[in-house]
Amino acid sequence: MVNEILQFKNGNPVSSPEERIDLLPKTIWKNNKKCVALDIGCNAGNLTQSLHVFLKNNVSEDCSLLGVDIDPILIRRANEANTSDNVYFQCLDFMDQNNRETIIKNYLLLNNTDIFSVVFCFSTTMWIHLNNGDMGLKTFLKEAALISDMLIIEPQPWKCYKAAVKRLKKVFRFPLFSELKIRENVEDEIEKFLIDECNMVKIAVTNRTKWDRKIIFFEKLLVTSTLSAILCKKINFEVADSDS
Ligand SMILES: C[S@@+](CC[C@H](N)C(=O)[O-])C[C@H]1O[C@@H](n2cnc3c(N)ncnc32)[C@H](O)[C@@H]1O
Predict the structure, then answer these.
(1) How far apart are the CA of 46 and the centre of ligand 1, in A?
(2) What is the mean pLDDT of each run of 10 residues along the chain (244 residues)?
(3) Residue limits of the Bin3-type SAM domain (predicted)?
(4) DSSP per-residue string spanning the chain
């Protein structure tokens, strides 16, 4: 299992949950009555649990969080260690459309909402990208943006890709690696794609961390719905005008 080889069995080896939590701004959150959140690539759930405490303290006391990961061993470990009533863990390859739709739809339904208040994706985009190519990364970003009111991403920079591929070359091959067109500027490309193609707006970014990542905060742009409401009104007016 790649996670075993990379020593990701207990989260990210380069930083602790507390170090990430300390970087989260306190002022950007919407004051929802209830907060429903998703953590994609939750690993063994350590960071997920800390995110839940953060959301409860800073967004809403009423907060449910679903952590998903492709690795069933990690999800078992996350479930065994889980003591919170409102944190759930489920095994899911986020790129598997059928399972994703079922699991996400059921969880949202259970929480009486059609969108997550916030979706986290810490240090996971590189694995999605390496395993699914440029198109896979774009599909991932589109799908994550679609289900989130707020999207928080910590992408790995290109040098992590080179290090991972080199480190794993004897045991694991990434056949799509050499074909990737999104490379050196992958963090900028992710940001640009979310803004240009996924209807998101960047609201904050952290400084580069000591583990050489930045956390980027996006919010769903509501202009489209406002614009379509205006257009609808205009069309209605025109129909009314031509009727009279
Ligand atoms: C580097 S770890 C990050 C763990 C945690 N988010 C953190 O930052 O501490 C990346 C995680 O993404 C998971 N992952 C990779 N591809 C995935 C996919 N397609 N769907 C869900 N999880 C995935 C891996 O199993 C791994 O646990």
Answers:
(1) 12
(2) 54 79 92 92 97 96 97 97 97 98 98 97 97 98 98 97 93 93 98 98 94 95 63 51 44
(3) 1-223
(4) -HHHHTT-TTS-TTS-HHHHHTTS-SSS----SSEEEEEET-TTSHHHHHHHHHHHHHT-SSEEEEEEES-HHHHHHHHHH---TTEEEEE--TT-HHHHHHHHHHHHHHTT-SSBSEEEEES-HHHHHHHHHHHHHHHHHHHHHHTBSEEEEEPPPHHHHHHHHHHHTTT---TTGGG-SS-TTHHHHHHHHHHHHS-EEEEEEPPPPTTS---EEEEE--HHHHHHHHHHHHHHHHHHHHH-
